[in-house]
């Protein structure tokens, strides 16, 4: 198994991520610079973010948010989003205040606050 000098602990190489998780420069960069263990950590964190912010990964803005978070969390480039309940549903969600009772996939995305503010 290949090892990689992981960005998060360069002194102790870890197992490399087997295949790029994204078909992009970012995906290849993860293979080169992030170990499989830290990638698994990220996947757990990503699930937390998706649930917390009510993200729909099929939507472009949700994916871009997650790519930015990959860079922030794994590469230290940018601001990691805080898991802060006061921010519940502020990104791409329909303003649901209760994060406990909903499950992924059940929401139709009828309103998308934030999409109109981006265009000016
Ligand atoms: Zn690592």
Describe the protein:
Helix content is 39%, strand content 3%. With 120 residues, the chain is mainly alpha-helical. It has one domain (3-93): YggX-like, CATH 1.10.3880.10. Helix 2 crosses helix 3. The longest helix has 18 residues, at 36-53. Residues 93-107 have low confidence and may be disordered. Zinc ion binds at residues 6, 8-9, 14, 34-35, 37-38.
Question: Order of strands side by side in the largest beta sheet?
Answer: 1-2
Integer count of domains: 1
CATH superfamily: Fe(II) trafficking protein YggX
**H/E topology pattern:** EEHHHH
The average pLDDT score comes to 81
The CATH level-2 architecture is identified as: Orthogonal Bundle
Principal-axes shape call: globular
User: What does the largest sheet look like?
Assistant: 2 strands, antiparallel
Helix content: 25-40%
**Which CATH first-tier class would you pick?**
Mainly Alpha
Task: Tell me the structural class.
Answer: mainly alpha
Instruction: State the separation between the terminal residues, measured CA to CA.
Output: 50 Å
User: What's the alpha carbon Rg, rounded to whole Å?
Assistant: 16 Å
Bound molecules: zinc ion
**What proportion of the residues form beta strands (DSSP E)?**
under 5%
Tell how many strands the DSSP assignment holds: 2
Uncertain segments are 93-107
């Amino acid at each position: 198994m290949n090892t990689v000098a992981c960005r998060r602990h360069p002194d102790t190489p870890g197992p490399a991520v087997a295949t790029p998780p994204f078909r992009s420069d970012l995906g290849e960069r993860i293979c080169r610079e992030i170990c499989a263990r830290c990638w698994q950590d990220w996947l757990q964190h990503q699930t937390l973010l998706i649930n917390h912010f009510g993200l729909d990964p099929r939507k472009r803005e949700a994916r871009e948010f997650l790519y930015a978070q990959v860079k922030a969390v794994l590469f230290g480039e940018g601001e990691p989003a805080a898991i802060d309940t006061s921010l519940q549903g502020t990104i791409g969600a329909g303003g649901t205040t209760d994060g406990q009772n909903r499950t992924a996939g059940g929401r139709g995305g009828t309103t998308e606050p934030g999409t109109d503010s981006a265009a000016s």
